[in-house]
Each structure stands twice: as structure tokens, then as C-alpha cells.
């Protein structure tokens, strides 16, 4: 439908096929646009990876396309660290960057430059960044947030199978008869794949599903056995399973003999890992371990699905390897429904690695330590040589910045001031850097605070290029609309600076960055894959446009879903897969008296990473409205913590304060914290202030998943809650400063009443009157319609409303009216006596919580439906909940189950 | 035994209330004689405002009719102003020639409206608002004249203005200060009040000082002129700029007076046989113009007149209400506060409510309410009791009922 306004000349309504920019599933999306703006985003039925399905985040993509203060619209620069940045012309920004780079390279050498990139970038962006770093600057200091995400999966695959390549494909979800999901809450992190598995299980109830996770997540809803193992004990578990299979004659000795090596040592090692020992190490019953091993060993097709629980670990490579052993020992690889399948976290972590976008990689899955590989790459780039000195991986990179070895840090499309572990150190490094370039689309990331130069980046759906998903499928990402302001695709920003830099330091290399378009970059990139394990040198944009997304290796026109190693020939030098003799090593940080809790981290259902994009969609904030930590009810009792009480969570690296919630899905002694909240949403340095930077010795991936933590109740005498309606970006700009004022502070985008912000503050002492007055002013409540002030006690209650519509409120010092006020703001139903709310005693019914984000269906509505006798089908028919993306189905099913259990008890 | 003689000068609320209290204690102690300057038996002066608006009649506000005096054996002299006290002979003389002897004399002479000393203050249709006669004048004026100016934005002034407006006049209120009722309300409440009254059609000329009242050739008021040179045409001027305790009689008799007739805690003047109550007295330096203190004084004075000798009057916490239908205003105690006090405020713009409570050392010491005065009696009690309110502080603003629910 053509829009009547804002349609420029030549703008045509159209529907473009592209790819969702969130996780590594790589779902196909159709972008409906009038040429100027995105009207709607829907699933693309023709995309072979997702078959038209999207999750709640993907469904809401259209709402992330904003042209307001949420975007960086022009380059910004500050001449010195103590100045504010000001907007400058993009050309000037490129000149400044090139001059600075040339200057520092000239003075301190190429290794004083570091690039820290992102799995969000497209393959073409990676290709030019990589070329800039290695072929022009001359450094291997180029790493990405994939280091925090997939590098253990990479090293696991490479050590055992010979190449960084998930051997399975999504089709296998339909054909497996034993599925082991390890270290993955795929119901939240990869919902579309989870839906597919759920459907397969429904079709074939005989399918056995094992979930290995310290916490009972929504993924466990389809599990036949949930192994709630002690964090970090995965290797012991997998060894014990192999032990059971070996003793029970469930291994395929013939396959082992013909296609692998190293089994003998591993077989010797796992003899000690009896189910009984594993029971002790992992905290799950030996009988369950035996059962799981038997299911796995007896399966016609055994599939493993795994992600951060294995990867974000100081023994991530060992975990990956030990899991892959189970497949090698049983021959469960290279065939329909089988294989060790790493689910990639980011949309293009795969493509990034294909383009060599990591310190430890060169394009085409090559190794920078390999002389011949370096020579091949130099030849393809038409340069004399590429650097041989090893580059810094992510953690090292920031250490090098901190101690001054790296002077200029160029960050693109990622947010290390939130996502890196040990934030205090990372922030010290960002402060210490001589010059920080941040190339970013969103104006809200924590890292921007440290930028000397900001480059305005285009983002989805303004960019064009390719991405590779978890099943090695390359898809075209298509630009549907123009980028706003001065924002440019990342590769163009890189080329703009690279050409200028080349003019200064190596004029003959200027031509290296003369690309017409993305297609030309892609064409150059695919030449690097020729003759390599991932060979897709025959692929070009025309083929992708004509035949749709293609899996690598790509030999020619469209074929059946590709599995690797069907012939038993692996990507190692001798073609044999390798058993790696890895020992079980516990987590890096043991619990102690001071830090008695095992703190693990994970995802929320409707948020993505550091929320720079997903946090712009009010509807996605409904499922979890403010930061919290889950504790086991027993631990809450022991520490005398009430539900929703403030607790200080502390590790050896830092602390944060948030609300505690009881969760029986944890084991006692465990705590669980979502990973999303940075200092843009809460006081302090965000959740990763706590996280551990201890890392895997091979993959260099930090142990973001586990820390030993201490907990203490904070009995804050003074509390405040506030809510204000309005545009999230501008409100955040005005109100973020309050995060620094109180020891407990959160500021969250909110869908209450449409769009706005919610705030909650607490401190041991009441703030002085001047502080309260300023808070009132910032919330635009000076002339609020309803006010109650007792400043001597730190009490201020203010409600601004007009008719039935509330526009803002603040309850300071006494927050009892909070829920009732949110209810009013959300429903526009004027309470009988608004003045009552000032007393905090109007007891509104508990406010409904949204379960289904797509159809906006609340828990109360679903409960009512269940009470009325509806089962899932009935609820879907009457309320529409769970009929769109389906991400909420596990929760709805659990609600039905809980209701039925209660009835039985009654 | 021959009865003692009690003479009461003043037939108003304070004097007669004292008699009522006395009769409750001892019906037979005195022969009582009352002198009243007005032609009416004791009436409720507070309710002159509703009479002016027409909501009540003069009959409605009579407190004690002639029958009451008769039944209680009280000799009543109406239209009789006492002009002299002969303390040596213990007798009083009225302007109608009546002479009455006393053993005890009770002075309840009330107060007089203050007349601005400006040229033209004696013109025709320049009146005050004190008694039934004034009300009758205003009612008569409203029936044939168009415009009125009330000088004074205090309680009386606003009530007069409201009454005249209710009777169809175009009323302007002239006020010297920045805000209305500046002795009874803080600025926030006064602002609300002004807006509410403006909605009723009243006009306010704030920060204006009257220079003179301009008359026409017939000696009747025509306009009022201010010191800033501006003028306001009018057919009637009501002066409501304050009252002065009526001490003339006492002074002439040589009884010590300050601002009012000086009394001790038993309401006794410097002459041991003479007592005084009501607006005419000065007690511990305070002269009260409100009804509640008068009643408290009456009770104490009656006790001593009855020779019971117990009861002390130690002053009153002041509270006021504005008698304008539909506008609820209340204030009591120190409702402004200072550096040593804490304030709790509540405002509901939509409902036109503003409340302020002032607390010192955990005690309620003042309250100012606008729009909702349902809890005024409770606040007044708390102020008078002076007990700690720290326990109920959170609910204090929401009234006595709120306390038990919390």
C-alpha cells in the first residue's frame, strides 16, 4: 500500500527478501516498504532455513527502524578527551581518522592499531576491514565479538574435524531420534529452530530429547531428561556418557577405526569417568547419565545442539571436543539427523570467520601462523606480504590498550563497554586509549561514551551484502531503504578511511579499496574460498538472486541440504577426525565463603545482546520489565531475602545491585542473571562488571557464563519509582544521568501506555530536597496535577494526568502506588479516586504481565482462558496467543501444566 | 439571701455564650441585665454571610429569642449602648438613660470595623460589613445598583464580595497584598482561591492601595481611586479591612487596655469585679476575631463568675474557615512554617485541592487546607493536643479515617 506522505520521487512500494539481523539462525524476512520507510516485516516462506517463521524479536524488526534520536546521523569528533563531541562532516571524519592512523603507525608501528569488530557486520564489511588491517595497516590486531561467542566452537571443530564448519543442517532437526541440547536455552536464543524441533517431537513422540543446563529453562519443556549439571562440568558428563557407551558396546569401532584417530588415549582417559564419578562431579544422577548415554548410543540418528553454555567457558574447547567425541565414537555425523551442531550466536559470525575477521584467522579459513596461507592471502590481495606477528584476541586487545601497546582502537558494530567481561578493566582501557573510533548505528551504546571519533553507520535494513548462518547457508541481505543522515554502510566507511590512509602511508594501495559495490567485494572474497573446505568460489550475487540462499561448500546450482563428512573424510590433513585427549577442568572460579553462589548468565526471550536495537521496541520490554537476578528460594530464605528485594551481587571484579526473584528452576546455591543490561540501563558498570575474563587456553574465549558470586541484601531506606510517556531515545538522553546518582538505579524502555521509560531508584539515605526537585523537573512533573510532598522524609509523589491519560509519575520515598499507577497508565482507565493513589493504598489487582509479545496477550488473560477450560488449541483460537512467532509457547504450556497440577492437588 | 447582680455589656455571641455557660453552672446566683446596641436579640454573626447571599434569613440566624431572655429572668435592653461605667458605684449608664447596678460586670463589647482614613470614607454608600444593618444595606443596594467594590481580600471582604456577586452585582475586590487571605492561607492555596472566585465572576485588583473615594454631587460614592492613579467606577463600597477591639467604654472607665481590654487567664480585667470576653479583649497580647476562642473564653469566664474558681484560659490555636458556599478553606496554627519546621503538601489540580501541614519536632503545628476541609477538626485537635504525630505521619494528610485503614 503506497504511503500518501513521505514518498519521494521514484519510491515504489515493494517487498524485498532479506535476513533477520539477530541470531545465527539466519531467518529469511520479507521487508515491506514504500521505498522510504519499512511498513512491515514478515517471515519469508521461501527461505530454506526458516520456512517463513520468525521469533518475537524478528517479528518486531519493523519497529526497530527509527529515524529519531536513537540513530547516529552524523560523524562526531572531540579534539581532546575533556571536550564534548561535536558533529562534523563525514569527509572530515575520514580525514581525521586517516591522519591519526598514519601518525600513530608512523610513530609506534602498525601493531599500535587495534580493530574490534562484530558478528553483526556483513561478510563484505568484514572483507574490507580485514584487508585494511592486514594488507594496509599491516597488523593482525583484528578481532571480533565472535571471540566472546563462538571461538570455542571454532577451535572444537578445527581440532576434531579439521575445519570451522558445523557439519549438520537444520533439516536434521526433523530427522534426529535422539537430540542432546547442551548449554543452550534454544527456546529463547534460537526460537525458530526450537519451534521446528518441538514440531518434530510432536510428530514423532518417540524422539528423545536431553537438555543439559544447570538451570531448568523453557527449553526443558520438551526434554525427556533434564540434566541440571553443575556449571562447567560438561566434560565430565560427556566423558561419562562415552564411558557408558564404550562399556555397553554402543560405540562404532569400525567407524572409529576407519575415519578417526586418537580414540585409544581418550578411551583410556574416560575409563575413570564412571557414571558414579560423574554423578559427583556434575550433580546429576548416574542413572540419568546412563539413560542418556544409551539413548544417544542406540539412536538411529543422534543430533547435538549447543551454544554458549559450552563456548563461554575456560574449558570451552575441551567441552566442544568431548561432545564431538560422542558423535565420532558412534559415527553419528555426516548423515541425516545426526551430528554435533553448534548453533551460532550472531547473524554473521560464520561469514566473518570466512572472511578471516579474527586475529587467529585469515580469509578462507586460513591460519595467520601458516607461512603458505599468508602467502596465498597476500597474492590474492595483490600485496607483497601480510603480517606474521600474531594479533591480539579480544581480551588481550583491551589489555594491550590498557598498557599502551595499542594506541588507536577502532570499534565497529559492537559494544564492548557492555559485552566484555570484567567491565572495570575494559572501561579503564577505553579511558586509557589514545584514540577511540566507534563506528556505530545506534546512539545509545555504552561504548560511545569513550569515543573520540564516531562514524555514523548504516544498519539493517539499509545495508546490502551477505551473511552465513549456522547451517553454512549464505543469504543476501538487501537494503530496503536509504540510510538516514550521513550514515553509510560499514564497508564504505572503511574504504573511505582506507583510501585516505593509503595516500598517506602507501599510495599504491589506494586502489585496493576502490570497490563499486558489495557485489564486487563479494566477488573478491569468494576467490579466497577456492580450494578450501568452505569453497564457494562459484557463487556470486547473480546466483544468490536467481537461486536463493546457498549452503557452502557450493559446487553448483541448487542441491539438497548439505551435510559435511558424509563420506567419512574430514577436513584434516590425513582426512581422519581426531579424538582430543581433554581432561575435565572445573570452572576457573571456585565458590568460597565470600563468594558462595555459582552465578550463571543467559538470555531473556525478547531481548538481544546489549539491547541497542531490541531495546527500541517497547513491546519487547513487556516480558521482563526490569533487571533482576534469579535465586533459589532456599538461598533467599537463608540470606533473608524477600522477593523483589534489592541485593548487591558481588564477584572479585565488581558488583551490581538489582532486584532478587525466586526461581525454583535453579539448583540451590545457584544464581542466574540475564546478560543484557549494561550501564545504559542500570547503575554501575552493568551485568558484565561481574563477569569473569578467565579464558579458554586455546580459543581465548572468556568464561562469561560463570562466576563465583556473593550476595547481600540492601535494605535501602529510600526508594523511588517513576514512569514517563514519550520517545525512548530522547527520554533516555535526558534521564540517563540519574543512573549515576543512586546505588540502585534502573532505567528501562517501557511499553506501558504505548512508549516510554520506567525508572526505579533506591539508596540508603533519602536524597536532599534539591536532588528531588531536580528529579521532579527532569520528569517534567513540576506542575503535576497530583502532588504529595514530604521532603523532610524524602517523599514526593507526583502524577501528571489529563482526563484518563497519565503522562508521567514519580513515587519517591513511598512507592506503594506503583503497580496501580502503571495499571492506570497502561489501561487509560481513570481510577475512581486518583487521589487515593497518592496514599499508596489503592490496591490494584496485580498488573498483568505480557506473555505473548506478538499478540500482546497477558498472563491474566491466559490464566482466565485456562480456568475456562481451554487447552493450548483453545487458547490459540480464542486469544491468539502463541499463534504468531510461538516464542511464548513453552511458557503457555507451563501455565496450563501448572494449572492442571494445582487442580489435581485440590 | 439577696441575689447578686450581673450586668453584661454586649448582646453578642461572646456575652450571651458566657451567660449560657453560667446558667448551666448556677441558675440562681445572679440577677442578670444585658445591654445590646442593636435592635436584635443575640444572633449568629458568623452567619451574616449566608444571609447576605440569601441562603439564610435573619430569623434563621437568631440564637436566642426574646423568650429565652424572659425564661431565664434576664433583663434585656435593646437599642441601648452603655456609655459609662461608674466603678466606684458599681453601675453602668446607657444612652437611653438606663442605669444598672452590678456586683459583677461582664464586658463583651466586641469590635468595630476599621474605616480606612482616606478622603471620601464618609460618602453615601460607603459601608462596612459587621451587623444585620450592614447586611440589610447591602441587600438593598444590590437590588438597585450595578457595581460594587469591596476593599479588603480577607475573610469578611471575600464573603461580602461573594454575597454581593450572588445578588447580581459586578464585584471587584481590592486588596493591598499580593495574595488573598494572606493571614489565613499560603500562596498556593490563595492562588487556587482566587482562581475559583474569578470563575464565579469576581474581579480582583491586587496590590492596590486606596487613595480616596470619589463622590458625585449628591455626596454618594462614584468611584475609588488608587495610589497608582488608576480608578474603578462603583456604586457601592464595602470596607472590610479589619476590625478593632471596642475598648472605648473600658478606657473611659480607667480599665487597663492594650490592643483590647487586658484580661488574665480567668478573663478578669484589672478591676476584680469586671470581666471581659470576646473580640474586645487582649489576652496574653492576643486579640481574637474568631468564634472558637470566644467560646473557650466564655466557658472560663462563666466558671469564675459562678465562683467555682477553676478553669484557666491559656489562649487558642487559631483556625479559620471561609463561609463561601462551595469553597472550602481552613487554616490553623503556623501553616507557613520556617527553617525549623517541615512541611507536607498535597495538591490535586484537577479536583482543586491543596493541603499543607506543618510539623515541628514531630508535632503538627499548622494546617492550611483548600478544597477539602473534611479533616480540619482533626487537625485542629492534633494541633491543640500537641502530641507527637510521627507514627501516623504517612497517613496524616489523608485524614483521621485513613489512619485506621493503614
From TrEMBL, chain A:
Question: Which parts of the sequence belong to the 4Fe-4S Mo/W bis-MGD-type domain?
Answer: 13-69
Q: Name one GO molecular function term.
A: oxidoreductase activity
Q: Report if keyword Translocase is assigned.
A: no
Keywords of the record: 4Fe-4S, Iron, Iron-sulfur, Metal-binding, Molybdenum, Nitrate assimilation, Oxidoreductase
Question: For this chain's UniProt record, which GO biological process terms are given?
Answer: cellular respiration; nitrate assimilation
Q: Which Gene3D superfamilies match?
A: 2.40.40.20, 3.40.50.740, ADC-like domains (2.20.25.90), BFD-like [2Fe-2S]-binding domain (1.10.10.1100), Dimethylsulfoxide Reductase, domain 2 (3.40.228.10)
State a GO cellular component annotated for this protein.
Answer: oxidoreductase complex
Q: Pfam families annotated for this entry?
A: Fer2_BFD, Molybdop_Fe4S4, Molybdopterin, Molydop_binding
Q: Which domain of life is it from?
A: Bacteria
Q: Output the InterPro entries linked to this UniProt entry.
A: Asp_de-COase-like_dom_sf, BFD-like_2Fe2S-bd_dom, BFD-like_2Fe2S-bd_dom_sf, CT_Nitrate-R-NapA-like, MoPterin_dinucl-bd_dom, Mopterin_OxRdtase, Mopterin_OxRdtase_4Fe-4S_dom, MopterinOxRdtase_cofactor_BS
Tell me the cofactors it needs: [4Fe-4S] cluster; Mo-bis(molybdopterin guanine dinucleotide)
Describe the family membership recorded for this protein in Swiss-Prot or TrEMBL.
Belongs to the prokaryotic molybdopterin-containing oxidoreductase family. NasA/NapA/NarB subfamily.
**Matching PANTHER family:** NADPH-FE(3+) OXIDOREDUCTASE SUBUNIT ALPHA (PTHR43105:SF9), RESPIRATORY NITRATE REDUCTASE (PTHR43105)
Supply the name of the protein: Nitrate reductase
Source organism per entry reads Pollutimonas subterranea
Classification from the root reads: Bacteria, Pseudomonadati, Pseudomonadota, Betaproteobacteria, Burkholderiales
From TrEMBL, chain B:
Where is each FAD/NAD(P)-binding domain found?
A: 5-301
Essential cofactor(s): FAD
One Pfam family for this entry, by name?
Pyr_redox_2
Q: Which SUPFAM superfamilies match?
A: FAD/NAD(P)-binding domain
One GO MF term attached to the UniProt entry: oxidoreductase activity
Family annotation (InterPro entries): FAD-bd_OxRdtase, FAD/NAD-bd_sf, FAD/NAD-binding_dom, FAD/NAD-linked_Rdtase_dimer_sf, Rubredoxin_C
Q: Which UniProt keywords apply?
A: FAD, Flavoprotein
Show where the NADH-rubredoxin oxidoreductase C-terminal domain sits: 319-386
Q: Which PANTHER family match?
A: NITRITE REDUCTASE [NAD(P)H] (PTHR43429:SF3), PYRIDINE NUCLEOTIDE-DISULFIDE OXIDOREDUCTASE DOMAIN-CONTAINING (PTHR43429)
Q: Which family does it belong to?
A: Belongs to the FAD-dependent oxidoreductase family.
Q: What is this protein called?
A: Assimilatory nitrite reductase large subunit
- According to its UniProt entry, this protein's organism is Pollutimonas subterranea
Amino acid at each position: 500500500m503506497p504511503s500518501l506522505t513521505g514518498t519521494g520521487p521514484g519510491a515504489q512500494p515493494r517487498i524485498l527478501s532479506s535476513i533477520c539481523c539477530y541470531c545465527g539462525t539466519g531467518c529469511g524476512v520479507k521487508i515491506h516498504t514504500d521505498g522510504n520507510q519499512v511498513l512491515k516485516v514478515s517471515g519469508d516462506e521461501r527461505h530454506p532455513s526458516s520456512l517463513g517463521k520468525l521469533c518475537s524479536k524478528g517479528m518486531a524488526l519493523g519497529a526497530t527502524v527509527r529515524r529519531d534520536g536513537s540513530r547516529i546521523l552524523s560523524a562526531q569528533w572531540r579534539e581532546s578527551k575533556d571536550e564534548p563531541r561535536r558533529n562534523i562532516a563525514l569527509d572530515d571524519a575520514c580525514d581525521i581518522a586517516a591522519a591519526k592512523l598514519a601518525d600513530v603507525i608512523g610513530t609506534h608501528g602498525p601493531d599500535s592499531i587495534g580493530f574490534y569488530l562484530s558478528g553483526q557486520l556483513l561478510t563484505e564489511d568484514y572483507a574490507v576491514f580485514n584487508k585494511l588491517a592486514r594488507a594496509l595497516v599491516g597488523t593482525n590486531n583484528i578481532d571480533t565479538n565472535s571471540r566472546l561467542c563462538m571461538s570455542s566452537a571454532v577451535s572444537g571443530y578445527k581440532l576434531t574435524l579439521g575445519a570451522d564448519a558445523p557439519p549438520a543442517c537444520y533439516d536434521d532437526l526433523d530427522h534426529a531420534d535422539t537430540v542432546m541440547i547442551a548449554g543452550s536455552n534454544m527456546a529463547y536464543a534460537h526460537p525458530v529452530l526450537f519451534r521446528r524441533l518441538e514440531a518434530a517431537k510432536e510428530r514423532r513422540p518417540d524422539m528423545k530429547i536431553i537438555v543439559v543446563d544447570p538451570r531448568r529453562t523453557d527449553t526443558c519443556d520438551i526434554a525427556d531428561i533434564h540434566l541440571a549439571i553443575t556449571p562447567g562440568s560438561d566434560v565430565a558428563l560427556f566423558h561419562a556418557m562415552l564411558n557408558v557407551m564404550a562399556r555397553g558396546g554402543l560405540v562404532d569401532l569400525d567407524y572409529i577405526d576407519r575415519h578417526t584417530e586418537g580414540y585409544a588415549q581418550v578411551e583410556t582417559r574416560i575409563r575413570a569417568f564412571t557414571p558414579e564419578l560423574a554423578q559427583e562431579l556434575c550433580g546429576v544422577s548416574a542413572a540419568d547419565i546412563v539413560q542418556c548415554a544409551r539413548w544417544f548410543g542406540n539412536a538411529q540418528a543422534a543430533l547435538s545442539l549447543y551454544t554458549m553454555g559450552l563456548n563461554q567457558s575456560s574449558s570451552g574447547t575441551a567441552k566442544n571436543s568431548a561432545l564431538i567425541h560422542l558423535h565420532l565414537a558412534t559415527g553419528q555425523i555426516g548423515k541425516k539427523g545426526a551430528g554435533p551442531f553448534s548453533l551460532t550466536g550472531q547473524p554473521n559470525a560464520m561469514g566473518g570467520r570466512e572472511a578471516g575477521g579474527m586475529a587467529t584467522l585469515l580469509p578462507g579459513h586460513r591460519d595467520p601462523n601458516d607461512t603458505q596461507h599468508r602467502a596465498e592471502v597476500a597474492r590474492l590481495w595483490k600485496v607483497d606480504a601480510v603480517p606474521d606477528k600474531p594479533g591480539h584476541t579480544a581480551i588481550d586487545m583491551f589489555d594491550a590498550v590498557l598498557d599502551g601497546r595499542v594506541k588507536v582502537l577502532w570499534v565497529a558494530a559492537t559494544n564492548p563497554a557492555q559485552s566484555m567481561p570484567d567491565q572495570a578493566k575494559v572501561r579503564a582501557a577505553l579511558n586509557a586509549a589514545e584514540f577511540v573510533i566507534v563506528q556505530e548505528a545506534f546512539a545509545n551504546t555504552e561504548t560511545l561514551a569513550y569515543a573520540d571519533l564516531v562514524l555514523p553507520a548504516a544498519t539493517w535494513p539499509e545495508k546490502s551484502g551477505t551473511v552465513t548462518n549456522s547451517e553454512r547457508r549464505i543469504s543476501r541481505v538487501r537494503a530496503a531503504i536509504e540510510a538516514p543522515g550521513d550514515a553509510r554502510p560499514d564497508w564504505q566507511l572503511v574504504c573511505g578511511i582506507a583510501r585516505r590512509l593509503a595516500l598517506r602511508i602507501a599510495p599504491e594501495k589506494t586502489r585496493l579499496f576502490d570497490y563499486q559495490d558489495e557485489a564486487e567485494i563479494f566477488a573478491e572474497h569468494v576467490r579466497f574460498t577456492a580450494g578450501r573446505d568452505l569453497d564457494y568460489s562459484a557463487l556470486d550475487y547473480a546466483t544468490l538472486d536467481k537461486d536463493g540462499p546457498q549452503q557452502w561448500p557450493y559446487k553448483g546450482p541448487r542441491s539438497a541440504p548439505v551435510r559435511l563428512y558424509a563420506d567419512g573424510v574430514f577436513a584434516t590433513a590425513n582426512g581422519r577426525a581426531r579424538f582430543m585427549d581433554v581432561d575435565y577442568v572445573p570452572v576457573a572460579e571456585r565458590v568460597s565463603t565470600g563468594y558462595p553462589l555459582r552465578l550463571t548468565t543467559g538470555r531473556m526471550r525478547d531481548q538481544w545482546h546489549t539491547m541497542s536495537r531490541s531495546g527500541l521496541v517497547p513491546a519487547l520490554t513487556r516480558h521482563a520489565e526490569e533487571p533482576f537476578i534469579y535465586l533459589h528460594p532456599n538461598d533467599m530464605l537463608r540470606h533473608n531475602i524477600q522477593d523483589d528485594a534489592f541485593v548487591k551481587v558481588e564477584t572479585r571484579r565488581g558488583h551490581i545491585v538489582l532486584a532478587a526473584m525466586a526461581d525454583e528452576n535453579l539448583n540451590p546455591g545457584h544464581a542466574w542473571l540475564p546478560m543484557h543490561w549494561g550501564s545504559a540501563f542500570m547503575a554501575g558498570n552493568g551485568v558484565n562488571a561481574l563477569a569473569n575474563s578467565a579464558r579458554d587456553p586455546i580459543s581465548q574465549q572468556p568464561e562469561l557464563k560463570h562466576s563465583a558470586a556473593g550476595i547481600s541484601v540492601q535494605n535501602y531506606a529510600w526508594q523511588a519509582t517513576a514512569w514517563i510517556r514519550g520517545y525512548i531515545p530522547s527520554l533516555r538522553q535526558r534521564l540517563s544521568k540519574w543512573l549515576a546518582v543512586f546505588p540502585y538505579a534502573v532505567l528501562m524502555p517501557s511499553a506501558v501506555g504505548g512508549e516510554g521509560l520506567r525508572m526505579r531508584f533506591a539508596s540508603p539515605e533519602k536524597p536532599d530536597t534539591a536532588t528531588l526537585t531536580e528529579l521532579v523537573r527532569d520528569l517534567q512533573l513540576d506542575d503535576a496535577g497530583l502532588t504529595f510532598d514530604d521532603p523532610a522524609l524524602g517523599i514526593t509523589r507526583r502524577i501528571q494526568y489529563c482526563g484518563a491519560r497519565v503522562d508521567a509519575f514519580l513515587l519517591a520515598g513511598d512507592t506503594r502506588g506503583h503497580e496501580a499507577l502503571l495499571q492506570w497508565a497502561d489501561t487509560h482507565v481513570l481510577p475512581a479516586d486518583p487521589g487515593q493513589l497518592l496514599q499508596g493504598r489503592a490496591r490494584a489487582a496485580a498488573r498483568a504481565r505480557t506473555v505473548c509479545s506478538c499478540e500482546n496477550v497477558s498472563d491474566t488473560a491466559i490464566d482466565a482462558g485456562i480456568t475456562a477450560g481451554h487447552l493450548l488449541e483453545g487458547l490459540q483460537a480464542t486469544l491468539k496467543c502463541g499463534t504468531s512467532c510461538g516464542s511464548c509457547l513453552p511458557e503457555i504450556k507451563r501455565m496450563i501444566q501448572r494449572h492442571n497440577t494445582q487442580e489435581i492437588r485440590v | 439571701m439577696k441575689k447578686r447582680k450581673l450586668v453584661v455589656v454586649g448582646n453578642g455571641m461572646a456575652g450571651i455564650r458566657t451567660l449560657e455557660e453560667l446558667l448551666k453552672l448556677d441558675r440562681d446566683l445572679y440577677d442578670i441585665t444585658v445591654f445590646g446596641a442593636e435592635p436584635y436579640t443575640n444572633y449568629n454573626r458568623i452567619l451574616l454571610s449566608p444571609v447576605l447571599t440569601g441562603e439564610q434569613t435573619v430569623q434563621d440566624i437568631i440564637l436566642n429569642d426574646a423568650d429565652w431572655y424572659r425564661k431565664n429572668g434576664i433583663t434585656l435592653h435593646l437599642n441601648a449602648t452603655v456609655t459609662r461605667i461608674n466603678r466606684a458605684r458599681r453601675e453602668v449608664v446607657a444612652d437611653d438613660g438606663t442605669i444598672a447596678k452590678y456586683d459583677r460586670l461582664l464586658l463583651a463589647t466586641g469590635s468595630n470595623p476599621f474605616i480606612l482614613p482616606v478622603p471620601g470614607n464618609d460618602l453615601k454608600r460607603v459601608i462596612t460589613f459587621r451587623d444585620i444593618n450592614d447586611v440589610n444595606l447591602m441587600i438593598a443596594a444590590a437590588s438597585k445598583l450595578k457595581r460594587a467594590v469591596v476593599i479588603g481580600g480577607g475573610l469578611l471582604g471575600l464573603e461580602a464580595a461573594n454575597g454581593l456577586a450572588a445578588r447580581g452585582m459586578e464585584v471587584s475586590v481590592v486588596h493591598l497584598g499580593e495574595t488573598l487571605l494572606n493571614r489565613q492561607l499560603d500562596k498556593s492555596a490563595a492562588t487556587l482561591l482566587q482562581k475559583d472566585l474569578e470563575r464565579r465572576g469576581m474581579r480582583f485588583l491586587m496590590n492596590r492601595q486606596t487613595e480616596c473615594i470619589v463622590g458625585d454631587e449628591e455626596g454618594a460614592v462614584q468611584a475609588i481611586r488608587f495610589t497608582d492613579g488608576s480608578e474603578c467606577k462603583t456604586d457601592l463600597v464595602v470596607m472590610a479591612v479589619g476590625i478593632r477591639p471596642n475598648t472605648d467604654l473600658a478606657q473611659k472607665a480607667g480599665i487597663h487596655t492594650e490592643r483590647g481590654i487586658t484580661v488574665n487567664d480567668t478573663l478578669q480585667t484589672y478591676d476584680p469585679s469586671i470581666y471581659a470576653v470576646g473580640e474586645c479583649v487582649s489576652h496574653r497580647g492576643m486579640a481574637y476575631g474568631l468564634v472558637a476562642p470566644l467560646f473557650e473564653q466564655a466557658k472560663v469566664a462563666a466558671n469564675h463568675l459562678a465562683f467555682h474558681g477553676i478553669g484557666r484560659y491559656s489562649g487558642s490555636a487559631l483556625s479559620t474557615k471561609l463561609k463561601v458556599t462551595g469553597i472550602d478553606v481552613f487554616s490553623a496554627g503556623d501553616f507557613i512554617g520556617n527553617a525549623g519546621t517541615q512541611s507536607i503538601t498535597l495538591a490535586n489540580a484537577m479536583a482543586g485541592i491543596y493541603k499543607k501541614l506543618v510539623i515541628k519536632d514531630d508535632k503538627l503545628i499548622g494546617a492550611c487546607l483548600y478544597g477539602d476541609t473534611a479533616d480540619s477538626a482533626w487537625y485542629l485537635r492534633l494541633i491543640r493536643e500537641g502530641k507527637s504525630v510521627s507514627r501516623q505521619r504517612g497517613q496524616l494528610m489523608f485524614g483521621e479515617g485513613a489512619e485506621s485503614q493503614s
